[in-house]
Design brief:
Radius of gyration: 24 Å
Pfam families: Plug_translocon, SecY
Largest sheet: 3 strands, antiparallel
Helix content: 55-70%
CATH class of the largest domain: Mainly Alpha
Strand order of the largest sheet: 4-3-7
InterPro entries: SecY/SEC61-alpha (IPR002208), SecY_dom_sf (IPR023201), Translocon_Sec61/SecY_plug_dom (IPR019561)
CATH superfamily of the largest domain: SecY subunit domain
Shape: globular
Domain Translocon Sec61/SecY plug: 40-72
Order of helices and strands: HHHHHHHEEHHHEEHHEEHHHHEHHH
Distance between the termini: 49 Å
Protein name: Protein transport protein Sec61 subunit alpha, putative
CATH topology of the largest domain: Preprotein translocase SecY subunit
Family: Belongs to the SecY/SEC61-alpha family.
Length: 472
């Protein structure tokens, strides 16, 4: 019996979306996509039942944008369980640790079913760790029943997110993966909220609008030049500088998005049937930063749990020492690996602890480059896989023998994947240091996902050629 067969009994208990037996019309796919996005957004507004009162610890604060997460809501775990489970299964398959032939329908269904079971297990572990860490109040205060209810709500919500992701993946909506679409929506939601929120806040200077654009007009009309300066550089809320940084990162990602190499291909039999096969600089899209952020989120959570349990152990302190703010409920790393792999916590800390800056600035691009290279091996997008796809479509590269196609493709695909991953990491670091709304990594995911969805819509005939020419 194969390892995957162990999951068969449990797979039957989980919801499954059948592959459509017809081509879903463009308008219907739009409706399904909008419905899933709306449901994901609503989940962020429904509070978890059973939370304690007062401030709570938030281990995921620094990475919530990349997880599409909303603290204290049904989106508490966001897409983290689905991402983590997907990475685990892809790694096991790519490393040949599990036996499966994904070209066979039965094995593919078994693999996908096993991945769903892993999603539930990961959600159960992450939810239990959050509750155990006191993210919703001490267990002694909220009680065992409420603790169990909190875990149950987060697991069920993760199953709902998994089902919506599967719905979009199987062709009912747009997007090769619903997870990226959900993250993109979360980033755009955060940017719009930062710029146009009507919420009134008071950070010690009197009442003012939370939205940057609204605050600009309010403070300028109220206080003149000093108000304009305040809107540009205010602390405790978004300001014009962070909004401009966000626009800059958007422009930077769009600039690199169009970089590509086009290789000439032709049909084996119909010689007149020829075209170009594009290999983008962002060949692996936003996956490198997703992999990096997912690993970091799980490492942060584990580090905080271990430090809370064994604060005196040197090994645990080496992994990360954490300081909790009673006012905000946030935890921030103050020493150890967790500290050095985190962005500088203030402008002053850049000069007082340059080692933190150097490690952070160098580790993210390097990690993303490595993650991008590894993703080629486990995702079926490497040179050998692309050569096989071309052969199945009876296509070959113009000017090259069939025996050399793999080496020619590899000459372009691998460098594009690695360099693209490094560029993605560098842009993410730039966004973090400039304080861009939604974080640099979040903006990268939003832009690449929206761009990919526009490409799909164009192929479906849903975008006018004039607009497509401007975009592509």
């Amino acid at each position: 019996m194969r390892f995957l067969d162990v999951f068969r009994p449990v797979m039957r208990l989980l919801p499954e979306t059948t592959t459509p037996d017809r081509r879903i019309p463009f308008n219907e796919r739009m409706v399904w996509t909008a419905t899933c996005l709306f449901m994901f957004m609503v989940m962020g507004e429904i509070r978890l039942y059973g939370m304690g009162k007062g401030s709570t610890v938030d281990p995921f604060y620094w990475l919530r944008t990349l997880m599409g997460s909303q603290q204290g809501s049904l989106r508490e775990l966001g897409v983290a369980p689905v991402l983590t489970a997907g990475m685990i299964m892809q790694f096991l398959y790519g490393s040949r640790l599990i036996s499966a032939d994904l070209s066979r329908k039965e094995d593919r269904a078994l693999f996908q079913g096993a991945q769903k079971v892993v999603v539930v297990l990961v959600a159960l572990v992450q939810a239990s760790l959050l509750v155990g860490a006191g993210a919703f109040g001490p267990i002694s205060a909220i009680g065992g029943l409420n603790a169990g209810l909190l875990v149950g709500q987060m697991v069920i919500s993760s199953i709902a997110v998994m089902s919506m992701d599967e719905l979009l993946q199987k062709g009912y909506g747009f997007g090769a993966t619903g997870i990226n679409t959900f993250i993109a929506m979360s980033v755009c939601e955060q940017i719009l909220s930062s710029g146009l929120s009507f919420k009134t806040i008071d950070v010690g200077r009197g009442p003012e609008k939370e939205g940057v654009v609204l605050a600009l007009f309010q403070l300028t009309f109220r206080d003149g030049i000093s108000g304009l300066k305040e809107a540009m550089f205010r602390s405790g809320a978004g300001n014009i500088i962070t909004l401009l940084a966000t626009v800059f990162i958007f422009a930077l990602v769009n600039y690199f998005q169009v970089f590509r190499v086009e290789l000439p291909v032709k049909h084996v039999k119909a010689r007149s049937h020829a075209g170009m096969y594009p290999i983008k600089l962002f060949y692996t899209g936003g996956m490198p930063i997703i992999i990096y952020a997912t690993c970091l989120a799980n490492a942060y959570l584990l580090s905080q749990i271990l430090y809370a349990m064994f604060p005196e152990m040197k090994v645990i302190g080496f992994l990360g020492k954490w300081e909790y703010s009673e006012f905000t409920g946030l935890a921030r790393p103050i020493a150890g690996l967790a500290y050095y792999f985190s962005p500088p916590q203030s402008t002053v800390s850049i000069f007082t602890d340059p080692i933190n800056l150097i490690i952070f600035v160098s580790s993210v691009p390097i990690s993303c480059g490595i993650a991008s290279r590894m993703w080629l091996n486990v995702s079926g997008t490497g040179a050998r896989d692309i050569a096989r796809q071309l052969k199945d479509q009876q296509m070959t590269m113009r000017g090259y023998r069939d025996s050399t196609v793999i080496s020619v493709l590899d000459k372009y695909i691998t460098p594009c994947a690695v360099v693209g991953g490094v560029v993605v990491g560098a842009i993410a670091v730039t966004g973090e240091l400039l304080g861009a709304v939604g974080s640099g990594a979040g903006i990268i995911l939003a832009v690449t996902t929206i761009y990919q969805n526009f490409e799909t819509m164009y192929k479906e005939g849903g975008i006018p050629p004039e607009l497509a020419a401007a975009l592509f």
